[in-house]
Amino acid sequence: MVLALSLVLAQPAAPATRADMAERTLRMERTWRQVQDPTRRRAAVDVLSRAVGAFFANQTGQVCQLLDQAEAALRNETVSPSAGWRVRVVPPVVAPGEPYQLVYSWAYGSGDPAPPAPKAGVAPDREGDVTLDGPETLGRALTLSVVRDFESRRAALEQGGTQDLAPPLT
């Protein structure tokens, strides 16, 4: 199976989404479970308290930034300069052989970040980590679904039928 990949850099800043906040919350929670040091946890809680206020003020970019700061506090590190970058697969579902893009945009909503110099690793037909060496690693896991006849399959599922589904990929 051949997939075509292109990179789209530095899209205009759009408000961070709930998905952006959720990704950061999950990363912070994973780090929280790994770190037992009460001093680091206390430092993270101080930042998380501000994130809660920003959430209820609908300041999604600030929430993302504070969640990244809380995770960094747990690791006893400073926030990585690349932490504010969002990466998305567009479209998230493609037919075999169709092209897709990795789109980078700034989640924090403020500041004037330097555009990234991304390197992307694609591992078609397998799940797992792809690691690329570079000056800084932007650790993100993205899912691209490759589905033959996606629209007709979805329509059949919405109608409750299964007889019209295409055969599985081989």
Give the secondary structure arrangement, pairings included.
Elements lengths: L4 E7 L6 H17 L3 H19 L3 H16 L9 E6 L2 E2 L5 E7 L38 E2 L3 H9 L12
Parallel strand pairs: 1-4, 3-5
Antiparallel strand pairs: 2-4
- Percent helix among the residues? 25-40%
What is the spatial order of strands in the main beta sheet? 1-4-2
Averaged pLDDT, please?
Answer: 78
Instruction: Count the E strands.
Output: 5
The major pleated sheet works out as: 3 strands, mixed
The SSE string, one letter per element, is: EHHHEEEEH
End-to-end Cα distance, whole Å, is: 10 Å
| Count of runs of 4 or more consecutive helical residues | 4
Rg, Å, rounded: 19 Å
Low-confidence stretches: 1-7
Strand content: 5-15%
Shape: elongated
What does this structure look like?
The protein has a domain at about 1-110. About 35% of the residues lie in helices and about 15% in strands. It has helices at about 20-35, 40-55, 60-75, 150-160; strands at about 5-10, 85-90, 95, 100-105, 145. It has a three-stranded mixed β-sheet, with no helix packed on it. α1 packs parallel to α3 (about 60-75) and α2 (about 40-55) packs antiparallel against α3 (about 60-75). The chain is elongated, with a radius of gyration of 19 Å.
